[in-house]
Amino acid sequence: MARMNDPQGSEQGKGQQGAAAAAGAAGAGLRDTASEVGENLRNLGSQVRDQAGQQFDQMRQQANDYYEQGRQRAMEMEQSLEDYVQEKPIQSLLIAAGVGMLLGLLWKRS
């Protein structure tokens, strides 16, 4: 009871209350900062996901273009070969026979 009437005791109580209030305010500020950081991370993750999706779509389109170019080139080569065979059938037959013999010899050795 003497402490309640003691001016030093009441100053200590006020100091403790002030420290507790400051700690509470600091805790609230820390929660707000943590909330902001969490929101910033979510936004950054969303931006990264969107950018990765755009890059994936761009690469897929580029791969599709390369595939189409290769397919067109193969069709052109096939047509050229057909034209060559029609123009020079005997020479084409001899070339095919030579390639067949070469492959047969290589296959026999392995």
Shape: rod-shaped
Number of strands: 0
How is the biggest beta sheet arranged? Answer: none
What is the percentage of strand-forming residues?
under 5%
The number of helical elements comes to: 3
Quote the distance from N terminus to C terminus: 107 Å
**Uncertain parts:** none
| Secondary structural class | mainly alpha
Radius of gyration: 41 Å
Can you write the helix and strand succession as a string?
HHH
Helix content: over 70%
What features would you describe in this structure?
This protein is rod-shaped. It has 3 helices and no strands. Helix 2 packs across helix 3. The chain is mostly helical and 110 residues long.
Question: Which features does this protein show?
Answer:
0% strand; 3 helices; 110 residues; mainly alpha
What topology emerges from the helices and strands here?
Layout: H1 2-5, H2 7-87, H3 89-109
Helix pairs in contact: 2-3
Brief digest:
With 110 residues, this protein is an all-alpha fold.
